[in-house]
Specification:
Helix content is about 10%, strand content about 0%. The chain has about 60 residues and is low in regular secondary structure.
């Protein structure tokens, strides 16, 4: 019964069947399209001031 994880393929970067480089051994960046990072698309939220604590949640004491 063959090992389903195939450690030989990971070590040698060739498959046992074809002696060709495994698909993981090629440059994966050449097949992926360029895009933006996750979570950076702000849509139409605008770019005004932000952050801070809402006035009703601020402490009456200076920090």
């Amino acid at each position: 019964m063959p090992n389903p994880q195939q450690p030989e393929m990971r070590r040698s970067e060739t498959t046992q069947v074809t002696n060709e480089p495994a698909p993981e051994a090629t440059d994966p960046k050449s097949t992926r399209s360029k895009g933006h990072a996750h979570g950076t698309d702000k849509g139409d939220k605008g770019g005004g001031e932000g952050g801070g604590t809402p006035p009703d949640q601020q402490s009456p004491y200076p920090s």
